Amino acid sequence: MRKTKIVATIGPASESEENIxxxxxxxxxxxxxxxxxxxxDVHRERIERLKRVxxxxxxxxxxxxxxxxxxxxxxxETDYITLEDGKEVEIVCGEEFVGNSQRFxxxxxxxxxxxxxxxxxxxxxxxxxxxxxxxxxxxxAILCVIDRGGTITHKRGVxxxxxxxxIPSITERDKEFIKLGNEERIDYFAxxxxxxxxxxxxxxxxxxxxxxxxxxxxxxLNNLEEIVIKADAVMVARGDLGVEIPIAQVPIAQKRxxxxxxxxxxxxxxxxxxxxxxxxxxxxxxxxxxxISNAILDGTDAVMLSAETSIGKYPCEAVRVMxxxxxxxxxxxxxxxxxxxxxxxxxxxxxDLPSAISYAATNLAxxxxxxxxxxxxxxxTTAIHVSKYKPSIPIMAATNSYETFCRLSLVWGVVPVMxxxxxxxxxxxxxxxxxxxxxxxxxxxxxxxxxxxxxxxxPGTTNTVQVQEIK
Length: 471
Description:
Blueprint: E1 5-9, H1 17-26, E2 30-34, H2 40-54, E3 61-65, E4 80-83, E5 88-93, E6 103-106, H3 111-114, E7 120-123, E8 128-136, E9 141-148, E10 150-153, E11 158-159, H4 172-184, E12 188-191, H5 197-204, E13 211-215, H6 218-222, H7 224-230, E14 233-237, H8 238-244, H9 250-263, E15 268-271, H10 286-298, E16 302-305, H11 307-310, H12 315-336, H13 338-347, H14 353-367, E17 372-376, H15 381-387, E18 395-399, H16 402-407, E19 414-418, H17 425-438, E20 447-453, E21 462-469
Parallel strand pairs: 1-2, 1-16, 2-3, 3-12, 5-6, 12-13, 13-14, 14-15, 15-16, 17-18, 17-20, 18-19
Antiparallel strand pairs: 4-10, 5-9, 7-8, 7-11, 8-9, 20-21
Helix pairs in contact: 2-4, 5-7, 10-12, 14-15
């Protein structure tokens, strides 16, 4: 069984029911919808399609990625403009007009108030670099020197590394997509360009659906712990992060984000360019498979595919590669216990009650050579806590909540099981062990460790660890 979860982005290459089923059978656990592309009606249709596939018995989570407040250039007189090294260019804030290589506009009208001379403006994922020379506040204009020139087409992204901007984290378009997600009862929202904990709090005022905070700005790294505490899950969004901070710092930033997410018991997704070459190639590069493996060794819950499955030529092949790399990496982790023992040693003291119970269950399972950990969970919290100790055996999470059943598809090592609400604790254990035998996780004579609350089904009552032998 593969414990690392795979997130795949739905797009033109994968949006049919037939292709969704193929991706599931290749190993996808979570489907991501990118609201930066296509209309709200297109995404509504995709969600409905995913739900129809669920009705066939497939189990997965749906993640709706909100575009966020992306700053972009305006349109130009020609299809593209060329900015030359050493020359000057004027950027006007918020005033729409057709631009050229001497003067163009951007869609953030307050930047002239917040940026300072000497600070950088990066365009087109950092391909073009400008330094602010002067600011004319009366005209809302920023005069820049071109450090690294290049061509820019219409509506290219603008990054402002180190600049503390006040742009709202949730746009009007995002609010429409939040409304859609609330109506359709998706499983997660991903919040883009989070800068501080308040951004997550603002999103939570609009929805009761879990929020995945995308860490992709220097400000977010500076406020990492407060963001992780407020968020329900975290994404290492390496695309914009690699523009916002020096690209050489991205690997260490990734490790830090994953470490903090694990410390606070939050699921974490590692994303962006994991198999970029497979958009057009049937085989990955050696660097790409190493990247996937290292993210898993860092402690990520999930690895994500973007363009590889949304517009790529080989979506299923990309998922299969991730699946194989994950299985091989996990085999190494189990053989040498590389992650788990270090984690248990470092974080086994001063734990809150859910963490202490999860630690005890994981350690007990190791000491008695148990074949399975069973968690009874209403909200998924117990299963997530156990997961963070990276047990070498599967975690079967029994829940009476369909929303929890779906959302646990994101969590490392967890196999969700849907049970009837009316079951007693003993009936729940009997039902789950029966399911475990059917799936081949256990056989008669095997030991299982059970983490539950008495009475079962009441959130927040996890208070029991017990051992049972399979009959």
